[in-house]
Amino acid sequence: MKRLLMLAAAVAAFTVQAQSFPGSKPITIVVPFSAGGPTDRVARDLAEALRKPLGGATVVVDNAAGAGGSIGANKVAKASPDGHTLLLHHIGMATMPTLVRNLPFKVETDFEYLGMVNDVPMTLIGKPGLPANNYKELAAWINENKNKVNLGNAGIGAASHLCGLMFQNALKIDMTTVPYKGTGPAMTDLLGGQIDLLCDQTTNTSGQIEAKKVKAYAVTTAKRLSTPALKDLPTLQESGLKGFEVTIWHGLYAPKGTPADVVAKLNTALKAALKDADFVKKQEGLGAVVVTDKRMESAEHKKFVADEIAKWSPVLKAAGVYAD
């Protein structure tokens, strides 16, 4: 009888918590990368858009970088499952199971999937003094120089690293890859001419392309983009790399065991945030596309990530790279 009473009390407590969520306690969105990067920018815009549908709750961003994004993800996986600690992660959720050895959590079972946020195209850009002025000339230049070409990235497991791997695989050419600790240092060295190429998210490259500080060659989407700064760029597919498509996406997660009612409230709030005019405008300005399809639903979000794990695992295993 005593155990039954304790169980009933616990259930009642969870019910009250769900009904009053989020209450006066702040909600923290953990970003598993450094401040100022593309994912951080998305998180801060999303935090602002979530406040109203969450009843004016305080929503803050906490940067916990390292180990291919697994440190921040683990922080959320181990957090109290009360809905007040969330994770905003990108395609790294699909690559960590292969990239990070001895991963301290399971991507597919240790989180509640709250819904997708956006899709972010990638752009292939070059240093200001690169002799190639279009993709055809770039391809010829790469073929002539091959492993002398320096291809930068923001670190193993970063979006720019994944895009670089796909690009080298498509060309069947090994370049000299130069990993950095974040997109900021990589872009700085590209602008300074220390590296030749970078394939990175439009959230990080659009401004530099628009200001004509870098040479822009192509986008990684199946179709051309409509963003003013990028609309004249061809796709890598139409440039000759058939089937080449890399889009970086972001999703929102809570620790496994978060009450179903709280998960439902967070999902409803996320859907409202994705329709927020200011949020959509900010994302469009960065070249990102806010999700409006069925991936906003928890189950579809989870299925999508599982499919992405299956897609990237063989690519990463073939490359033989690890984030730890």
Write the layout of secondary structure elements.
Blueprint: H1 2-20, E1 27-31, H2 38-51, E2 59-63, H3 70-77, E3 85-89, H4 92-99, E4 111-126, H5 135-145, E5 150-153, H6 159-171, E6 176-179, H7 183-191, E7 197-201, H8 202-210, E8 215-219, E9 247-255, H9 260-274, H10 277-285, E10 289-290, H11 298-319
Parallel strand pairs: 1-2, 1-3, 5-6, 5-7
Antiparallel strand pairs: 3-9, 4-7, 4-8, 4-9, 4-10
Helix pairs in contact: 2-10, 4-11
Average pLDDT metric = 90
The CATH architecture of the largest domain? 3-Layer(aba) Sandwich
Report the structural category. alpha/beta
* Number of distinct helices: 11
CATH superfamily of the largest domain: Bordetella uptake gene, domain 1
Please identify the top-level CATH class of the largest domain.
Alpha Beta
Oligomeric assembly: single chain
Strand content: 15-25%
Fold-level CATH name of the largest domain: D-Maltodextrin-Binding Protein, domain 2
Total count of strands: 10
- What is the string of helix and strand elements? HEHEHEHEHEHEHEHEEHHEH
Shape: globular
Report the end-to-end length measured between terminal Cα atoms: 50 Å
For the CA atoms, what is the radius of gyration? 21 Å
Q: Helical amount among residues, as a percent range?
A: 40-55%
Whole-number total of structural domains: 2
The largest β sheet comes out as:
10 strands, mixed
